[in-house]
Amino acid sequence: MTAAPSTPLDPSDDPYTWLEDVSGDEALAWVRERNADMSARLDGELFGTIEKQVREVLDAEDKIPHVSQIGEHYYNFWRDARHVRGVWRRTTPSSYATDHPDWETVLDLDALAEAEGESWVWHGASMLRPTPEQLAAGEPWRRALVDLSPGGSDTDVTREFDLVDKRFVPAAEGGFVRPAAKGSLGWVDADTVYLSTDFGEGTTTTSGYPRIAKLWRRGTPLDAAVTVFEGEESDVAVSARRSRTPGFERDVVVRAPSFFTSETWLVTGVGTPDQELVRIEVPDSANVGLHREWLLVRLRADWEVAGGDGSSATYRAGSLLAAPLDAFLAGRRRMTVLFEPTATRSLAGTAWTRHHLVVNVLDDVTNQPHVLTPPDVPEGPDGAASVLGRPWARSELPVSGELLSVGVSTVDAVDSDDVWVTTAGFLTPPTLARGSAAPDAGPGGGPATPVPLKAAPERFEAGGLVARQRFTRSDDGTRVPYFVVGRSDVLDGDATAPTLLWGYGGFEIALQPAYSGTIGRAWLERGGVYAVANIRGGGEYGPAWHQAALREKRHKAYEDFAAVARDLVATGVTEPRRLGMEGRSNGGLLAGNMLTRYPDLFGAVIVGVPLLDMKRYSHLLAGASWVAEYGDPDTDDWEFLRGFSPYHLFAQDGEHPPVLFTTSTKDDRVHPGHARKLAALMLAHGKDVTYYENVEGGHGGAADNAQAAYMAATHWTFLWSRLAGN
């Protein structure tokens, strides 16, 4: 075994680089030894009980089968005890409305995995919409592109699937088949697809994603596909797609130079010698959306523009803007502001129906969806210009509830104004409803209240439990929200309890209330408290909240999390020896920093699929794609990166709480070497380290319900044994 290094770790003399060899014999022998140690430490009655409880939740047959409407059917992907890998199935809307829908199997992944000797994991499917003429003639939806991953990695394959005959169309019969790689296939028409993949040496970015988009015609070899767009090796990725809305067919290429910048190009004459590309001229940091006549622009930074008619305006970061696309392409820059942020309000998401736009707003991390209706664009050469800057009609989508998350998605943006509405809270099981975004659908003149279709039952005993939102102050005085769930007497400070604090704080992702039967059964029912910190770096208050913890300001996220931890103690909910924290992925980096920068605040730490070696991260798998978030360690940025690199912050003589590291050998997004190396370093200095690496699962950590239940039992048994004094 390599000798333990001195403190601090010298990044130029890393003794554990051998653990970066993902499937190397020596590295895997180390993994097996650590997994056996984990089993010896945690296996027992409590582990078995929790594993059984979690498996019951995951395999429950009364879960809500979330669906997509495709033609005359509702499609759903489902896992339970009988369908370990899962089954892709469909039913009719009328059957779905019953308590026991009549499901027709479309594709059985368990049977496929057995037949092909591959541990396939479902990555989704995209359907080819029939043309209006085909629909009018009663032709069914027939063609699909199915994505399957070996073991759950980001690397996957795409195969054409016949929805009528319920079989894959082999390449020998002219079917489209994309070999295993990070990439995608997307329909152009029945005989053409857009292809982005690894075409060989030099065709991927330094992040490992495609940098070339091609047009591939049925019946031709893959190497005959025609290049449509080629990005730079330093980009994150390149992709292409076709919008097939009748009357508004468009070919679009998106180039992402970094994680938070992109260029959107419209393509005419695609794949021909006369091909032309026209860029939609918005800031690189903005997100672009297209729907029928309309262009939407979502800003991450302030945008000062001239209107093209002598006017000028400055649009604020976090705003959502709209303009007729034709007028915008003609140089007219007068935009309608559909949403503008405030100190507490940010944009959570949007969903187009045929005629309306549903805008989902967060106000202090609470959803408030409403409906916007654009003005009609008159026909003729000046039609688009005539509605520039005009306001859109607004109405409220009637969905309410205390501390509920509300998700809104479109049923069919081409032909329908219906939406799916899902709601859930920490103590409120999910419901699925269907409603109309049409502003005159309800009895009072606004949208009608969505009609519930399915409701999940309670998975744990919630009697005596309450969920609350609280606020605290970070080191610099910033107001930081968090949620806390537990017994009312504990939250009132009349008792202390084992407490888990969860966080993420990155990539403009907001953490909202969610119902978890796993957390309820494994933790809350046992008397534990669960808390979620809405720290900077996330998206709870829009791009400004995210950018407040970027790069050299990363420490702000960690200060916020530490402030929430202290507040849980100050308000009498818990005490440091009974307070644990967990984070995964970017949250695993957060956990690593709590472990090394704030060890006195916690009695246990779980570090899941983490980034930890911030000197090497950009050279490992997809790490280069995150330089915009963290900084470039190969430049002077290392001076601040070193300040939040747990692998280099570890102090061998310091006191550290017990730690559980979890990762996956199949994770080809965040390299398992991060977790392996810090675990090895801490073990070499006699720290209390538990380590578990699942062979499958990819970045999600588990490929099926059995693996997910085992992982969950590992987490909750570790926490309870360390924080509850058992």
From TrEMBL:
Q: Which InterPro entries match?
A: AB_hydrolase_fold (IPR029058), Pept_S9A_N (IPR023302), Peptidase_S9_cat (IPR001375), Peptidase_S9A (IPR002470), Prolyl_oligopep/macrocyclase (IPR051167)
Disordered: annotated segments: 432-453
Task: Offer one Pfam family short name for this entry.
Answer: Peptidase_S9_N
Q: Which GO terms describe its biological process?
A: proteolysis
Task: Spell out the GO cellular component terms annotated for this protein, sorted alphabetically and separated by semicolons.
Answer: cytosol
> Which UniProt keywords are present, listed alphabetically?
Hydrolase, Protease, Serine protease
Any GO MF annotation of the entry: oligopeptidase activity
Keyword Hydrolase part of the UniProt annotation: yes
Annotated ranges, domain Peptidase S9A N-terminal: 13-265
Q: Where is the Peptidase S9 prolyl oligopeptidase catalytic domain?
A: 523-723
Q: Does the keyword Metal-binding apply?
A: no
Q: Which domain of life is it from?
A: Bacteria
What PANTHER family does this protein's entry cite?
A: PROLYL ENDOPEPTIDASE
**Entry protein name:** Prolyl oligopeptidase
Q: Which organism is it from?
A: Myceligenerans xiligouense
